[in-house]
Amino acid sequence: MAFDLSTNVLIVDDYKTMLRIIRNLLKQLGIENVDEATDGGTALMKMHERNYGLVISDWNMEPMTGLQLLKEVRADNKLKQTPFIMITAESKTENVVAAKEAGVTNYIVKPFNAATLKQKLAAIWGDF
Amino acid sequence: MTKMTKEAALKRTLETIDTSETEASAADIAAVVEAVMRSLSGDVSVAEFQLYHELQKLADYIQSAKREIAAIRPDEIRATHIPMATDELDAVVGATAEATGTILDSAEHLEKIAGTLAPAPADEVRNVATRIYEACNFQDITGQRITKVVRALKHIEEKIDALLSVFGDGAKVPAAAPAPADESHLLNGPSMPSEANKQDDIDAILANLK
Predict the structure, then answer these.
(1) What is the pLDDT of residues B12-39, one digit of tens each?
(2) Which of A114, B27, B63, B181 has the fewest CB atoms lying closer than 10 Å?
(3) Closest CA–CA distance from residue A8 to any residue of chain B (Å)
(4) What was the ipTM of the complex prediction?
């Protein structure tokens, strides 16, 4: 998939600090069209209102978790092709397996650094 | 009270406990033990004496346990100490969130300044800002760890409630929480560093699942 810096990206996390960190790191990579949501339900609503080329989501949120959001996205014909990166502190093997089975595109464990984020984006879009 | 009357009273008490929907309280058990002991009169066999002795020890043990539990003031732990600890932890989360906000403000300001500099120093300043963004991950991680501690405190609070019910006015002991359903067992928050999978481990797991 060719990388387009104007791609709309949706970041989902219930910690506003994390939203700000991810937004700033994406900005440093040249990605500026970034929307935010603080839970899975709001994220799903936004995805139905606008096309996103990537979703970056936390797992541990209420009431809808990142995993539930991922499953909703993959079950929706309109949204199911959207690349989905999980960024989470949940680092157990069973979590990674559950996310993979639900169709996650990539998985980043917190705390993460800018290089890891860039590497995972490159895995989806190619080098940039 | 005649021996027959005593035995009838004891039988009624046992039937009441048996048919009650609530679990027998410590007071109920102590009353039964005392009634059994009172009924032991006249010719007492060795076996009956041993039973009497064991029941006496049981009654003493219950009384001792009640005194010890009362001495640690479980009501005070529930009413004062746990809420205070929870409030303090909430304050830690609030303070770190506020401090992190200020740090991020400064990092974003540095990036703006970088835009006015020559390419080499600008890159250096942007790298510094990146390191700051990365370090600010801590606020999320510590927040989740503190949430786990608060959850543990609430669990302790529930156990104290149960204890107070048993030794209080005979209130019903709360039923055990239902086993976690669906995917809630996957919500554990950050693992301890020695147990957590690193990013390389995660990548390897994902690669093996492809």
Answers:
(1) 877 877 777 777 777 777 777 777 776 6
(2) B181
(3) 22
(4) 0.82
| Cβ atoms of A86 and A57 closer than 8 Å | yes
Note whether B189 contacts A: Cβ–Cβ < 8 A: yes
Please work out, in degrees rounded to the nearest 5, the angle formed at the alpha carbon of residue A83 by the alpha carbons of A18 and B130.
Answer: 35
Q: A47-97 pLDDT, tens per residue? A: 999 999 999 999 999 899 999 999 999 999 999 999 999 999 999 999 999
Ramachandran quadrant class, A65 (left: phi over 0; alpha: psi -120 to 50; beta: rest): beta
> Can you spell out the DSSP letters for A55-113?
EEE-SS-SSS-HHHHHHHHHH-TTTTTS-EEEEES---HHHHHHHHHHT-SEEEESS--
Token pair belonging to B101: 């906000």
B contacts of A112 (beta carbons < 8 Å): 134, 137, 199
Q: Say what the pTM is.
A: 0.71
Residues with Cβ within 8 Å of residue A96, at least 6 apart in sequence = A107, B197, B202, B205, B206, B209
Distance CA B174, CA B161 (A): 8
Q: Is B177 on the interface with A (CB under 8 A)?
A: no
H runs (alpha helix) in chain B: 3-19, 26-39, 46-71, 74-76, 82-114, 119-135, 137-167, 199-209
